[in-house]
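Protein 1 of 2
SEQ + STRUCT:
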Amino acid sequence: MGLSLLVVSALALATLVTSFISGILGMAGGMILMGVFLAFLPVPSAMLLHGIAQLTANGGRALLLRREIDWRVAAGYAAGAGVALGLFAIARLVVGKSAALIVIGLTPWVALALPERLHLNVQRRWHPFACGIVCLALSLAAGIAGPILDLFFVRSNMTRHATVATKATTQSLSHLIKIVYFGGVIAAQGTEVRPWLAAALVPLAFAGTSASRHVLERMTDESFRRWTRWTITAVGAVYLISGLSMSFGVSLGVSSKHAIDAPLR
């Protein structure tokens, strides 16, 4: 995977900026970063590198806010994620690039369109388990699950600190699983990430996360939820349009374990 200095610089800057955004909102940064990686890398490589960068960013947030984590929610999420991983490992699926962008773009709108009777709340019984299944499946299919994850948290009674901390813990697990899946199960498909590139992005992700702590402290819970919803909806619209444009006249089928997505030209 040969990358120019300009591309490496773009990936590095995107990692720093999106980690800062995620540190404030608890999401959205991962959506943006996934889109940047998909623009320059094949899907398996983009998924693996995204997992490494986001594991660092989310792990850093979870560590900084560890006293705020709701471990009951995290445990239920982990159980559901385990079920989803088992299903994906059996199927060994990798979604095409245009389909991945469309899924990323649709998730905020699907979350907003769900009827009120489907009242999701991560603090309710079995909802963390369902959250784990759905979000891990989306993470392995499109690289991100932030908008749907937010749907499970937005009606909870958690403070912004507890929300960010618990989301960071669940997403750390998702990204760790994504690294194992694309770095191990799908490795034969041509997943390749240069170790030096992955190592360079780790401190940038942690730096962005650390810098965001000061902004989070100045926000109110109300403004936190408002900015989160607006940001993920806007970013989702951009990715939906990009995915539909890319797929015009092209099949959106799921690739088999022997197919490799070519990088964008």
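Protein 2 of 2
SEQ + STRUCT:
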Amino acid sequence: MLTRKSLSILPAIAALVIASCAVSSFDPNTGEVRSSTPSSSLVSQGLKQFDQMKREKKISTNPAYNAQVQRVATRLKSVINIPNAKWEFVVFEDSTPNAFCLPGGKVGVHTGLFQITQNDAGLAAVLGHEIAHVVLNHSQQRVNQATGVAIGTVLLDTVLNAKGVDKTGRAAAATGAAAAGTVGLILPYSRRAELDSDKLGTLYMARAGYDPDEAVKLWERFSAWRIKQGDKESPEFLRTHPLDQTRIVALQEFLPNAKREYKPM
């Protein structure tokens, strides 16, 4: 029989496993970054996935979009030192306002994003955010956490089996482990990673000569666009990304840090 005492083992096991997987950190007060390099297999997967996207998705030939992305990316890369990064920025024909990054320095930008960015500084906020994900090695962290939750679930099953819990009880515990690991550990980390990338990306754009105030304006435009689309935001604790208002407030509080490093060009 699955008891409350048996279930109490789960958080301790999961927390122990996840804590052992930490690979990066960012101190918003000092701007200090500590990060390990992604595994070679993860970088290889990122490169293969990006190559596949370039084969399967239509690459934009819009000269203004491509010139702007390369112009802004060049300035951002000049303030970032990542040994062996194989940076590549590609604009894809896609109406959704989005951008993404893959391990190894591969960044994709959708054409639909330019209606939100509107200017070089707005685009710098987005690209700085994506670059920050690469710098902070968030992809590796997500892989490690998923592995940690899986290991924690196996350990829990072993413990419960030793205690005589039947298969039905252990299956229920496994479901609980997955839910607890996702809601209690993986999703909160994902939201923190997004906020850290917002802040570090804002530092990068400031160092590259872009006004960090534009990062806040960017997210205000994103929020307005979503409201206009009629998007309904799910509760924050169930989201991989923070609510727009959470991001805006966090960036507003962080702006003095970024402005200290702002050097207009």
